[in-house]
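[Q] Does anyone have a clean structure-token version of this?
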Amino acid sequence: MFFNHHAAGQILSLIHDKVGILMLVFFVAHIALHWRWIVFTTKNLFGRQREMKEGEVIEANYMPVD
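[A] Here you go.
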């Protein structure tokens, strides 16, 4: 691409390729570690909203702020 065909260009190309592969590995590991959060958030974001029945009470658990 932008690297020339001299020794420095070959080294930069090698570094570029290896760093790209390493970034891909870290990205896949990151997604794997956070998969439960991704699924939970997606379900909450796009899930159907349940209609409340008449007289139903929503219980909220608030934590006091110091």
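[Q] Thanks! Anything notable?
[A] The longest helix spans residues 7-33.
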